[in-house]
Amino acid sequence: MAILEDKLKEQGMAEQVTTFESGNEMAAMAAAQINYHIMGYFPITPSTEVAQFLDQMKARGEHNIKLIPADGEHGSAGICYGAAATGARVFNATSANGLLYMIEQLPVQAGTRFPMVMNLVTRAVSGPLDIRGDHSDLYYALNTGWVILTARTPQAVYDMNIMALKIAEHAKVRLPVIVAYDGFFTSHQKRRVQYFKDRRVVQQFIGECPTDYHFIRDPKKPVTIGAHMNGEDLMNNHFQQSEALYHAGEIFKEVACEYAKLSGREYPVLDLYKMEDAEVALFLLNSAAESAKDVVDQLRAQGVKAGVISPNIIRPFPAKEIREALKNVKALLVGERADSYGAHGANLTHEVKSALQDDKDNQTIVLCRIFGLGGKDFYASDAHEFFKMAIDAMEKGYAEKPFDYYGHIPGDPEKILKPVITPQHGDVFKTGLIEVKMDEETQKLKVKIPPLRALTSKPKRIASGHGACPGCGIFGGLELFFKGIEGDIVTLFQTGCAYVTTTAYPYSSHKQTMIHNLFQNGAATLSGTVEAFMELKRRGEIQVSDDATFVMITGDGGMDIGMGSAIGTALRGHKLIMLEYDNEGYMNTGSQMSYSTPIGHMTSTSGVGKVQKGKTFHHKDTVQIMAATNIPYVFTGSEAFPQDLVKKGAKAQWYAQNVGPVYGKLLITCPLNWKSEDRYGTKILEAAVNSCFFPLYEIEQGVTTITYNPEEKNKRVSVTEWFKYMGKTKHLLKEENKPILEEFEAEVEKRWQRLKAMHENPLL
User: Fold this and answer.
1) Residues of the chain with CATH 3.40.50.970
2) Sheet containing 514-517: which strands, arranged edge to edge?
3) Which is the most buried residue in 90, 428, 452, 614, by most CB within 10 A?
4) What pTM does this model have?
């Protein structure tokens, strides 16, 4: 697809720059050159880098896109829809579960006909969780009403992002467009690419932003968007939407032709490799098609007439072009990175078969093989195997097995893994050294704990051998909290570093029962577990101890996307503990900005540059938010103050077993992303507490008590004492950033004074 620079002027093409970049980098490059108005986003691997690259470019002043960090993908879709309805040019990027979380928004945007472009960096949607690339997310998008382009290479990602907006805004289309490319294959692998040297070339190609739609932009011209429709009207609406989607197929051809003249790169509806006289062929989406082309050359050298078909657009589905391409093909194998469970073949296989039904003379034998799930690599040897299957069907005149999985391995009972650690439960986790009693006069719990050394005999809840980074504070903080918990626990870990580093199948670091669910639904999931446990016990269907404690562990920004679930769980009054480890960012996806990130702090999506100085707004006070639900016990804790944390763990257990839900927040160090030295972990936490940024307190039955007051201990320090240990905050110590530092200090002081007032007045 590349073209030599010396041919550009000769063929009337725009000047281009050659470099080596990944698909994510090229998606960001295209967006920056287009200079969209708005990007609503939420980080999820492997699409996260797109927002990161745009943030870095924004910090350098290379575009003017307003980057809006959402509370979750559903929120990001809402931001984008609202902006599109206002007539802004809008951009987004997501993957996998992120797409599914926002998916109810996608038909809304398509049905009301507001253009935008979203990059879908494809990734497995699965249980258990897998974060590598297949097409199971893409297939969920097929029925949303969006135009869907597919990009096999980083070059195609750049080019199709430019073409996508022109298609989306065309008067005959006016629909949102997805550009889908393979996660970790295309998204992260660097390839030789070209991009236009002058962004004005891109902007002139796309044209002016349309203004003649019914947008929410002029109070003098009021509009109603999305009015409720009855069946007759909705039928008409969907007919028009359907027609527009089919028009998009023709407009794609027009735009691709125009783009070829500008760039020298052609994107036909189908990428056909040596299909002119092919007798056997593979139908593959995206990067796998590129891997199969070398195999075609090898087979051709052996006299086999082989070819590869890969569509550049799958919505609308190119049925006519497929019929033409398969006129003389005797056997076609459709390889799919996702299944349509129970349908005897995945989605595109059935669409290919359906297309061929309209050609009564076509005798092509169609096979389907599910491959490459969860990012399983696809090599040239695999393409050889696919062609062998197609050749076998061609020679026999039928497919012995039309549908099957490829690459699955039968288990061997003799090689079953044996537990490394003998299961521990019950009395093993009981020391009898912790005493918790309710003071009838004060209506507060009194807790007596032994010297910490006496609790060292209590086994750890999480075994050694996990994959956390050196210096990670998560497990030190969690284990210290668990020292205050007597007896058995059942934990739910939301997605995040704590989950990923302890559960790499087939191994687990958890000594007691652990369940995982996604960021946005952990608290609700555990509430279902608690209630089922209680109901089964009430009916006499299980016989277990009464003192099991249920704990949900969240972190890495999980109280952003998971806040709604947590509040709902709190309001319902389930007997469980919600424990947040706060490392001030989305660390499991690469240190992106969270709502828990303090103002001015640097993350991969709140960079520091000449026009940007870190995060632009203050951190969310999740402790006070959860306290507002009137649950019986809320607290903060830190590993740097162990006695305080162990006591709060004991209180948390008592309330969760006897009264109702508990919420706790632990400040946790993250040396990798805080850019701090491992050895300073305790010092950093102490400074955060002593600066009053992270005060230690509890709210028991609605009454606030500060459990450690640095002012009374004469240990109060400036926040700069905390900042000096971390690379993510050192820029705030510079004179030019003094206004941000002063704003941060003022906010810390305001929250501290408010907390002291609550401590002094039980009614607050």
Assistant:
1) 14-222+232-263, 438-729
2) 514-517, 489-494, 549-555, 577-582, 662-667, 633-638, 696-700, 703-708
3) 90
4) 0.93
